[in-house]
Design goal:
Oligomer: single chain
Strand order of the largest sheet: 1-2-3-4-5-7-6
Number of helices: 5
CATH class: Alpha Beta
Strand content: 25-35%
Mean pLDDT: 92
Order of helices and strands: EHHHEEEHEHEE
Number of strands: 7
Length: 168
């Protein structure tokens, strides 16, 4: 499949959007197998988004596209294609930490993740000097993805995760 560049936009994911995030998770069950946790329930997703709302450094966003997707976002009129969770000034001032960049399982390997990562890097310039990403579990596909975007191994936190980093 040929990779293309997509126009990706995003919007804040509120607790009222838990059903959209949960639907995205339901379309991507292999992610939860890789990180060895059960898929979160709708209630757990709602609770997590509520926690994000109370942390001014943390951001949870729905990734949106007009071009592809089958999860309609009633607020934007676009399709939800992914989910992004990141935190500013973590682990230290000048850093941004991506906890999760998840593209719907139905839409992976088309370039959406690459477009979303580049869009985020563009937004973070001036706010962060370095972006770190966490790769949970044994996930060589995620490792290849981030390396292809110029991220290099930064911190070994095995057995749970590895961190990769890129200077902006």
């Amino acid at each position: 499949m040929q990779l293309v560049t997509f126009d990706i936009s995003s919007r804040f994911a509120s607790p009222e959007d838990a059903f959209l995030v949960h639907q995205l998770y339901s379309e991507t069950p292999h992610y939860f197998d890789i990180i060895s946790i059960p898929m979160p329930t709708l209630g757990e997703v709602h609770q997590e988004l509520d926690l994000v709302r109370h942390d001014n450094r943390r951001h949870a966003e729905l990734l949106l596209s007009r071009a592809v997707g089958d999860i309609p976002d009633p607020k934007s009129g676009q399709n939800v294609v992914g989910y992004l969770d990141y935190k500013l000034a973590y682990p230290q001032t000048g850093d941004a930490m991506v906890n999760l960049l998840l593209i719907s399982g139905k839409l992976q390997s088309r370039g959406l993740g690459r477009s979303a990562a580049r869009e985020l890097e563009g937004r973070l310039k001036g706010q962060a000097k370095r972006v770190l990403v966490s790769i949970y579990g044994q996930n060589p596909r995620a490792e290849r993805f981030w390396k292809s975007l110029g991220y290099t191994f930064a911190i070994d936190a095995k057995p749970v995760l590895d961190w990769y980093a890129k200077a902006l």
